[in-house]
Amino acid sequence: MSNTATLLTDPSMRLTILGVAGAFMALELLMSRLGHRHRDTHDLGESAATFGVAVGHSLLRAVGAGLLSVPFTFVYSHRLFDFDTMTPLALGGLFLATEFVYYWHHRATHRIRWMWATHSVHHSATRFNLTAALRLGWTANLSGDFLFFLPLAWLGFHPAAIVAMLSANLFYQFFIHTQMAPRLGPLEWILNTPAHHSVHHASNEACLDKNYGGVLILFDRLFGSFAEAPRDEPLRFGLVGGTRTLNPFRIAFGEWIALARDFRRVDTLKMKWLALFGPPGAVKPQGSPTAAPTAAMLSLAS
């Protein structure tokens, strides 16, 4: 698996992956223009802003990779077991363990505002298409996302194997950011599909905080966070109460600025804690009604 991780970081392989992604994005755009049903799936200005966000994310990820190697190497040096991920059993165990951790990590990014400040970037697009998959936050390390995956190294999975499995997970997820795919029948009971992931990104009240899975949808079904698309209304995308912008820096840092503003505005330690680590919407914007927040206010679109 370490050889796989090296392959994934090889410049020629990265160029190949980018080429495949670019070809599928172009094909999806062409299909949206040819089919009247899907003509509203793309906004070229928003897609251009997404590419700007993606460039910033790639640059910062390259810088942060070396820093992340330190805690993972340290934890792995104190591992409980040694798993050879070249064997099918260990590889399957790593896949399921990564899916399980990813589910709870993803769920936390929607319910802890400090983490949502990074993750909200991914859900700020008002069009659900393949380009939206590239809209990733710049501050994942600051939000502490990596902490969720350290236990995998402590158990005995090599850090390179964890990186490779997460990379494969994200590569799969690229292809479920589309409205062009057909339903997949019985596979939808097991796999996270475009239909399931479109619900995850929708801002309809019935869709908030649903369908967190990566490759699988099983943990959503098991832990009560699964939802089908509502039958009586079209899906809407973007952040609940959010303001659309085409500025990559505002997209990347807008929620951090709002978090800092709310932290300064409130007076008590309890409210300051909620401003940082409560669910999104727990601290109401200035000038909002004093009534208790609704479920829709407590959950931002995902």
Any overview of this molecule?
With 302 residues, the chain is mostly helical. It has one domain. 55% of the residues lie in helices and 0% in strands. The protein has helices at residues 2-9, 11-34, 44-76, 88-111, 113-119, 140-143, 150-155, 159-174, 194-201, 218-223, 248-265, 269-277, 295-298. It is globular, with a radius of gyration of 20 Å. The two termini are 32 Å apart. Mean pLDDT is 88; it is low at 1-8 and 289-302.
Topology:
Elements: H1 2-9, H2 11-34, H3 44-76, H4 88-111, H5 113-119, H6 140-143, H7 150-155, H8 159-174, H9 194-201, H10 218-223, H11 248-265, H12 269-277, H13 295-298
Helix pairs in contact: 1-8, 3-11, 4-5, 4-8, 5-11, 11-12
How would you sum up this structure in a few lines?
The protein is mainly alpha-helical. Helices cover 55% and strands 0% of the residues.
Overall pLDDT: 88
The CA-CA distance between the termini, in Å, is 32 Å
Q: What would you call the shape?
A: globular
Beta-strand percentage range = under 5%
Helix content: 55-70%
- Tally of extended strands? 0
Q: Helices and strands: which structural class?
A: mainly alpha
Report low-confidence residues grouped into runs of 5 or more: 1-8, 289-302
What's the number of domains? 1
| Rg over CA atoms | 20 Å
The main pleated sheet reads as: none
The tally of helices reads 13
The H-and-E topology, N to C, reads as HHHHHHHHHHHHH
